[in-house]
Structure formats: structure tokens, C-alpha cells
Records
---
Amino acid sequence: LRHFLSIEGLNRGLLTEILDTAESFAGVTEQSVKKVPLLRGKTIVNLFFEASTRTRTTFELAAKRLSADVLNININASSAVKGETLLDTLRNLEAMHIDMFVVRHTDSGTANFIASHVQPHVSVINAGDGRHSHPTQAMLDMFTIRREKGPDFGRLTVAIVGDIAHSRVARSQIHALNLLNVGDLRVVAPRTLIPAHVESLGVRVFHDLQEGLRDADVIIMLRLQRERMQGAMLPSEHEYYRLYGLTRERLTNAKPDVTVMHPGPINRGVEMDSQVADGPRSVILEQVTYGIATRMAVMSMAMHPVSSQENHG
Ligand code: CP
């Protein structure tokens, strides 16, 4: 592992190795001594061209707990606003002896573009690019599911509910769940929010929420991503909630011990009720916590490639 750009093209062994490594870091971060010296002397740049609360912060915390130096570039206060190109920005940061870029961008493919232009010793981690991919989110979600339900994904029914069409999170989750041999993978959404040919990714499509949730072990709710819906038929929030909002009553269609997840940010009263988001089946804040250990795992593996997995990503 040198770069970590998407889940596509990885294999089950590498995903399991990331989860196992994250498990060892979760043990570290849950104790009073939170730091390990693995990335001492390394410099990591958070390059976020799009808003973020959870991802940017947990990448920064993860880097600090690995003892790296971290720079957070405020793009709105950088020379990008004076017309400096992305490549010139990169070249100038590289001149400061950077070891890793963590990149979020509104355009799909930006992390791949950067990875193809950095110096050979520099790693690139994708922190979300357009509609394409959010691979560390998918990995922290797999980590959360494994913690909640154990390592046998084959016995699980997972329902991903909401705006599948515009969601980089859903794409990455679908690839990760397939690699981990999930038993029954469902997507639940109105027709306008399901991408064409999604069945080819090995999912079952439901348009009725109650049916889609029936006997589910895990429900992953998604936000309506209006910022990526240019020209699309937008459902009204009221209508969407009426048909697809997750309420306590609708949750009874799933298994009694169902795990409810959401990558955040939540739009309360649109995709889910506060009673569910803050309720006993929700692990939404645990997902955020596990993001630190999972990102520690990905960053440390990228900086210390293991020979058998070196070419992935
Ligand atoms: N889940 C997620 O990517 O959240 P942020 O946009 O806050 O980083």
C-alpha cells in the first residue's frame, strides 16, 4: 500500500489487514497513552478543497497519534484563490519535504490525479473525491460493522438507504462489503436516486423502505447530497422523509439487534428521526471514534509498505 485512492482493485486480504491494524490502534487510542512513534519525522498535509468536520479532524488526530507533523492547508486562504494551479500548489508543498497528502476535492479523480504527479516517496490518501470514492469512510464503516457483528460478514444483511446515486460513500461501501463477502446487500431509494446498472455491483434494489429493511442486521442511512444533484429531479425534504425517513416505528422491520449507521453529516428530520439517530441501536458517534484508528492504520501502512500488498491502491 503506497496510495489509498479507492476500494476498487483491492483484495479481501488487504481489507482484513487494514481492519486488524485498526483494531490494534483502537486498543492504543482507548488507553491513556494515546501516541505511538510510527510516523515520527514524517510530514502530512491535509489538503481539503471541500468542507469536512469528521474526516479532516480524525485524519489530523490519527496523524498526531502516529507522532507525525501535520499541516492543515486552508484552501480559501491559500494562493489557489489567486489562480495558482493544483499542480503548482503540489510542487510548492513538495518542496517543503512532504511525505503524504490527504486530499478531499469536489471533482472525481482528483486524488488519482495528484497520486500520478507526486514524487516517488510521497503517498496520497483519498479523503473523498466528488461522487467517486471515500475509501477510508468505507473502511471505518467496515470496522464498525465488524466490532458490532463479528468478523463473519457472510451472515449479515446490510441495507444502504438514501441517495445512492450521488454518494461516494455508498460506492466505496458496496465495494468493501462485496470484498468481505457480505450475505445480502441491499440499496433502498427512490428510482431517481439509484444509479443505472447498480445491480451489476451485486446489490438488490428496493424502492419500498419497509421491504428493504426487513430483517436487516445493519442499516446505513445516507444524506440527500444536494450539492451534487445539479439538474436532477430533487425530492422535497418533506416528501422524502414521508417515504424514506427512518423512524422508530420503521426500524421494527429490521432485526431487534439491528445496528444503525450514518457517515454524517445527518440531516435530522429528513433521512432519519433524532429518536433513531440518538437511540440505542445507533452507532453513529462510534463510527466517528473508529475513524481515528482506521485512518491510523491506513496512514501507517502507506508509510510502511508490506511487500505482499505493496502494489495495491
Ligand atoms: N463522513 C464524512 O465524510 O464527514 P465529513 O464531511 O464531515 O468529513
Note: Residues 188 and 215 are 14 Å apart (CA to CA).
---
Amino acid sequence: MVPAPKYNAVMLEAELKLCIKDRELSLVVGDITKIPADAIGNAANSRLAGGGGVDGAIHRAGGPAIMQELDQIRARIGQCPAGDAVATHAGRLPAQWVIHAVGPVYGDGRSGEPLALRSCYERCVELSDELGARTLTLPAISTGVYGYPMDLAAKVAVSAVATKLSGDETRVERVTFVLFDDIAFRRFADATLDMMPTLAS
Ligand code: APR
């Protein structure tokens, strides 16, 4: 009898789903503030002060309660370093939690950026587990204002999340990368398809 394949990927029009064990890693194009999930990842800054891009969109859609909670966290811990994350409630967003991850500012690519970016995604999954979140949406952290090249960021992001979903520690069932445009989707799809043989071995 031919054994069932360990992994399979299905590409729909602008959606890609990869099954990892009984979990799912998905890519979609869209606005992360519109897609329901238990936890939504944010691309924050280390001052947790809000900004433009996806951070601005999350605060606008979620309302002032998110910043009020961040004010309390800031008073307690000061800054959140690149590679780490903090969680707040999600206000009016279609979620229970926002996980504010601080990505690295991209310099020459040899100053710890890949490790810090990887750590952001790992922390998002770890905090989801601490909060009891089973579904998590994530943006392409650091690929906007922080200048991380999309193709390189996609490889790090997909590898970090797929490794977490392959492990035994997490109870997260589905992680969805919500990419803002077709080019970002394409880069993440390429990274996902490139990684599949590694996952299967
Ligand atoms: N949904 C999904 N993705 C989005 C959305 C959205 N609503 N808005 C923007 N994006 C995408 C961008 O196209 C980019 O690919 O999110 C990615 C990350 O871009 P930024 O938001 O600029 O985040 P980053 O590069 O990590 O820079 C963080 O920007 O806004 C400030 O406070 C933030 O200082 C921090 C810095």
C-alpha cells in the first residue's frame, strides 16, 4: 500500500494552504484587520507607540483600548526589544488578542536581522499558546518601513512558523499569513513551496 503523503499543499486563486501534521499554515492576500482569528499579529516598534502601516491599521480598527493596554505594559517593562512581542486584548478587531511583535530594522542583513525576525514569529506562536489562542493571523513583519526584502523575510517567516507547527509544544491549529498584495503573496508562496521538501524529510 502506498503510504499517505505527510504533507500536501493546495493553491487556490490567492490562497495557499499547507497541512503540517493536523495543523495548517495558510497564505492569503488581504487586510489583516478584517480576518477573524483568535490572535492577530502586529508589526510594532520597540516603544510600542503605534505607527503607520499595519500597526496604524490595527490601532484604527481596534480602537483606543489597545493603546491604553500598551501604555500599561510600557510602564511596566519599558521597551520591547526587536525579536520579542507583547500581547493585548484586541478591542473592536475580530479577534481576542493582538500580539505586538517588534521586527528588526533591516540593515546589511548580517547584523542579526534573520535571527530577530525568526524570533518575532516564534514569540507570536509561543504567546498564542500562553493565551490559549488556536488560530493566529500574521503580517509580513519588517517588510514595510523597516525595509526587510520581501523574498528574504518570507523565507524566515515561513520557516519559523512551519517549524513551530511541526513541533509537539504548540496547540495552535492554524496560522495564516495575511499578505497585503500579490507580490508579497507570491514571495511567501515561493518560500512555502521551496520549504516543502525540507518538511517532508
Ligand atoms: N494588512 C496586512 N498587511 C499590511 C497591512 C494590513 N492592513 N497594512 C500594511 N501591511 C503590510 C505592508 O505592506 C508590509 O508588507 O505589512 C507589512 C509590514 O509593513 P509595516 O507596517 O511598515 O511594518 P514594519 O516594516 O515591520 O515596520 C514597523 O512601522 O508603523 C510602524 O509602528 C510601526 O515603527 C513600526 C514600523
Note: The chain has a mean pLDDT of 94.
